[in-house]
Amino acid sequence: MRILGIETSCDETAAAVVADGQSILSNVVASQVKLHAQYGGVFPEMASRAHVEAIVPVVEQALYEAHVGWCDLDAIAVTCGPGLPGSLLVGLNFAKGAAWSQALPLIPVNHLEGHLYAHWLHTGAAGAADGKLEFPLLALIVSGGHTELILLHAHQKYEYLGGTLDDAAGEAFDKVARMLELGYPGGPVIERAARQGNVRAFTFPRAWLPDTYNFSFSGLKTSVMRALRQYNGPRPQRLIVDMAAAFQDSVVDVLSAKTAQAAKSFKVTAVLVSGGVSANTVLRETLRARVEVPVYTLPLILCTDNAAMIAAAGTLHYQADKQTPWEMDIEPGLKLA
Ligand code: KG4
Ligand code: ZN
Predict the structure, then answer these.
(1) Distance of alpha carbon 145 from alpha carbon 10, whole angstroms
(2) Going residue by residue through the chain (337 aa), what tens digit of pLDDT does each one get?
(3) List of domains in the chain
(4) Cα dihedral 213, 218, 221, 226 sign
(5) What is the largest CA-CA distance in the chain?
(6) Closest-lying ligand to the alpha carbon of 278?
(7) Is the pTM of this model over 0.85?
(8) Which-ligand-closest: CA of 195?
């Protein structure tokens, strides 16, 4: 079974062809990072315009790289939410038109479910699950828009354990990188700077929010801002790298401690880590050191937004229900559980 996945929920225009929910035949991502870098974050109106320009060539490239034509596909899976309304509309409307004209079923997919099902794709990468998954599982989704701990009892049986009450982890990385004038996106530049820094040079707070699996990063962000304000004039490089290191240490400490606690309490067989922030090597290492069960990670292209994960999640729904809900609409605030 071959499914074309389409993803346009934020700032990546992506299309991919996946066979049997496991084999990636193609995975094309057109990133808008350069476009949004000047604003230090995603500019929604510009994102949707860029999707309009990119969607046709990206889908054509995905079919070309997979060596398939429309007639070789069994269905199209598309992200319907959560995400930016203008961005979601481009992908969903393109997918509706393509599915109608090619007489293919159309499967709406929750973007977060996509991040979970990225782990069902076979990649051969170090640290990946590659077919070894058994329920119950715990998922940590950490991206620019999400920070969530989700329990997976079975396929499509999810339990929301907790999430951020304010900024997402990736959003905190992006905002702090902007304060430190390190560039955008914040995650990779902070990780790079932090390698030269001393985590103990600053003590930034950790919002433990006891007895919950919720997170909060806005206080941490404010602390970095306050600490930075004490230095007038040119800021020495040492200060910047130390702040980056101490900030990253605080985020990683809370994420890994809560994940380890949830993995133990719910007796899961493994932890799945997804989303752009899961590219962070310090987070990966700390999770592996603290969590008692295997921690599965993904190659970079599958950590950040992509359409292979949407096709993988779509395969599951296609097997369960082959009806196309043509009246489907975007759901910008869609929840997983
Ligand atoms: O999953 P993603 O591509 O898009 C969203 O759905 O948001 O994640 C993008 C986020 C950005 O906030 C970026 O700063 C963060 O992932 N990120 C990282 C790293 N690489 C990307 N955060 C921490 N460390 C990294 N190495
Ligand atoms: Zn995402």
Answers:
(1) 9
(2) 999 999 999 999 999 999 999 999 999 999 988 888 888 788 899 999 999 999 999 999 999 999 999 999 999 999 999 999 999 999 999 999 999 999 999 999 999 999 999 999 999 999 999 989 999 999 999 999 999 999 999 999 999 999 999 999 999 999 999 999 999 899 999 999 999 999 999 999 999 999 999 999 999 999 999 999 998 888 899 999 999 999 999 999 999 999 999 999 999 999 999 999 999 999 999 999 999 999 999 999 999 999 999 999 999 999 887 778 899 999 999 998 8
(3) 2-124+302-319 (3.30.420.40), 137-297 (3.30.420.40)
(4) negative
(5) 64
(6) 1
(7) yes
(8) 1
Q: Is the CB of 82 under 6 A from ligand 1?
A: no
Cβ of 83 below 6 Å from ligand 1: no
256 C-alpha to ligand 1 centroid (Å)? 17
Residue type, 10: C
Reference 6, options 59, 47, 50; nearest CA is 59
User: How many angstroms separate the alpha carbon of residue 311 from the centre of ligand 2?
Assistant: 14
The structure tokens listed for 325 are: 């809900």
Cβ–ligand 1 contact at 9 (below 6 Å): no
Cβ–ligand 1 contact at 215 (below 6 Å): no
